[in-house]
Amino acid sequence: MMWRRYCSSGDRAAPVAGLTTSTPRVVDVDAERMAEASEVFVDAFQEDPWARHLFRGSDASFDRSVRNLYRALLEVRAAAEEPVLAVELDGVLVGIATIEPPDHVTRLLDSARSLSSLRAILGLFTRTSPAGTRRLMAYASAVTGQRPREPHYYLHGLAVLRRAQGRGHARQLLD
Length: 175
Known about the structure:
Elements: E1 25-28, H1 34-44, H2 49-54, H3 59-79, E2 84-89, E3 92-100, H4 104-111, H5 115-126, H6 130-144, E4 154-160, H7 169-174
Antiparallel strand pairs: 1-2, 2-3, 3-4
């Protein structure tokens, strides 16, 4: 199944510190940019209470844990050929959205046949502390129980660099 994206081109955004005023555009994130995409999550979730609860500890261990978690999640998405969208501004990813399509479980199982996918899936469990993994699994279990039973798309993650927030980038990803 090929992911097809339909979105508006977006309006010219207000300037973002360190970036020019070029028009932001929505792009598909390829495997080579997953590390860059994970950094958007690290930055965006610096002050997030849920992320702070999930990964208790010093700022250095928090950054490492969030970076490892999102890098692993993004690698799994890439291996399963699931959509990871970004808002790109001047060649920099400023916003990320990860989407689970209705056939998410089938895609994961199909992709698990490859060594790179198995590494990515194992990375979800080996890149965080045991306590963080337990809290993450409890959260995932609670969320899964709230999902509708009929096939649906699920917005798994949405993040925008703190310096780029308030400029409509998340809205552009949602559109």
